[in-house]
Each structure stands twice: as structure tokens, then as C-alpha cells.
Amino acid sequence: MVNVSDPDAATELTELGPLGTGFDGDDGRLAAFYSYPRNLDRCWVRANMISSLDGGATDDGKSGGLAGPGDRAIFSRMRQEADVILVGASTVRIENYSGAQMSLAERRERQDRGQSEVPPIAVVTHSADFDHDALIFTRTEVPPLIVTCHETVPEARSRFGSSAEVVDASGPYPDRVDAGVMLETLAERGLRRVLSEGGPSLISLLTEHDLLDELCLTIAPVLVGGAARRIASGSAEAHTRMRRSHLLTDDEGYLYTRYVKDAPGGE
């Protein structure tokens, strides 16, 4: 017999069963699930990550190994909604990132919302050490933003020229990127709908500084074992209360969750 305290025993639980109605990803409801708040006067930072059932952020070293068709559809939808796609340097190298790709219909929809046709990729890096022939420079319509620290800016601008726009995002320390300054700089450019696609170090940085407004986490029906990293891994800890916004699933057994930061004091 397991003894539980009275408050725990009184907790109300809800079974999430097959009670909802299915829908096609193109019928407009998916867009409603992943639209950003309106009339933003600051950056709203959404993270989109995927995890295995046992908490791994990668399968065979890459997050793409965990993805399925539904996850890729939602990944595409979130990119379509964003003003800018924020990603860490290690993820760019490991996943071989290129620029965002948008269909004609997606471009028109973005134009109707007052957005650019294609969102830029903003790469957060202290060293800006990338090969010139990397896809982030060669397979893109929009030059990436290289978001780096003050000490690296002159060399990076000389190295990349017109193939990238180098952005100084240092705060009080010239040898590192300041996450708050980074978001202020993006907001000044009108890039307020921010989509962060990781990796774990960048998600941890945003979490530690209480800059993450929401987390969209896909849970893949896969066990990976081993030493796979978590979706956030850093030196500092945080305790940020989140509330569930929605939970979707598909025939493959994937769970698509969206959690938004609680208002101060809760709701």
C-alpha cells in the first residue's frame, strides 16, 4: 500500500484520451495553435525542441533523427510564423543548417501579416568560426545574422563580407554575447517574433535569464539511451513555472506540447 498525503490524494486528474477531433494541418487550425501574440512591443521568444521518451535531445547525435512527418509539419508552421529563427553555432554545424525555405503560398501569407517573405537565421556565436562554404551562407535567400560579441565583430565582418550581417550583442563583457542585449537588438530591427531552435546551450542561456516566453516540445515515441544531451544544458539552474497551452498528437504517437510562461503570481 502506498501512502499519500491528503493534498496529493485530492489532486484532480484528467485523462487525455481520443476525445478531440482530428484536423488537417492546412485547414487553418494549426496556424491558430502557433500564432504569436499581437501588437508585440518586445521580443516574444518561443523555443521549439524535440525529445525522446527518455529525455534525449538527439538520436545518433542529431535532433533530426527523432523527427517524424507531424513534427516536420509543425516545425515548418512555426518557421512560417516567425520574424527570425535563432540558433546556436554548434547546432548550425551539427545539423548543417541552411536558410529558411518558403513556398509561394507561405510568402504571400507572411506578406499579408506584414512580415518579410523569408525569415533570416540568426546564429548566436562567440567565435563566429564558420566555413565560407557552409549551407548557412550558400543555400539561403537572406544573409544570416551572425550575433556575436564585441571582440569578434571586426574579424567576423572582414571574414564574411556581404554573405552575412554581423551583429554586436555584447553587454558589459566584450568577450561574450549578452542574451538581453541580443533580444533588444532584434526588437529594434522589428524582429519580435523569435523562434529559437536550439541547441541545448542556447535554450539554457535563455532559460537561465528568464527570457523564454514559451516552449514547444515534441515528445517522440522513441527511446535512445546512451549519453544524449537534454534539450537544455548549462551551468546555472532556473525555476520558471509554465502553463500548458495545448497538447496535440498524431497516429505515430508523437506528442506536440506548447507551454507558456505563467504570468507573475500565476493566473
What spatial form do the alpha-carbon principal axes imply? Answer: globular
The termini sit apart by 36 Å
Number of strands: 9
Low-confidence stretches: none
Helix coverage percent: 25-40%
- Helix-strand pattern, N to C? HHEHEHHEHEHEHEHEEE
Largest sheet: 9 strands, mixed
Q: Helices and strands: which structural class?
A: alpha/beta
Approximately how much beta-strand content do the residues carry? 15-25%
Overall pLDDT score? 91
Strand order of the largest sheet: 5-4-3-2-6-1-7-9-8
Number of helical elements:
9
Q: What Rg is obtained from the alpha carbons, in whole angstroms?
A: 19 Å
Description:
α6 (135-138) links the parallel β3 and β4. The longest helix has 13 residues, at 69-81. The chain contains nine helices and nine strands. Strands 5-4-3-2-6-1-7-9-8 form a nine-stranded mixed sheet, with helices on both faces. It has helices at residues 6-9, 29-33, 69-81, 89-95, 104-112, 135-138, 153-160, 179-188, 200-208; strands at residues 44-51, 84-88, 121-124, 145-148, 165-168, 193-196, 214-219, 242-249, 255-261. The two termini are 36 Å apart. The mean pLDDT is 91. By secondary structure, the protein is of the alpha/beta class.
